[in-house]
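As a representative case, we now present a protein record of this kind.
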Amino acid sequence: MNTEENTPRTNANIDRCGIRNLLRLMAGQGFTEQELKKIAARIVKTTGADIVFC
């Protein structure tokens, strides 16, 4: 059973601001830029969101 197929999809960009805030908080907790990029890439792959780093 593939859970991705059974999970209702919402607009992936709705939570973009929340994702960005989460990554900023993680940066403040000592995560490296390389780790944050990997996490962001995984979020994009999983949700299809367009994450823009400012």
In short: Residues 33-47 form the longest helix (15 residues). Residues 13-54 form one domain. The chain has one domain: 13-54. The mean pLDDT is 76.
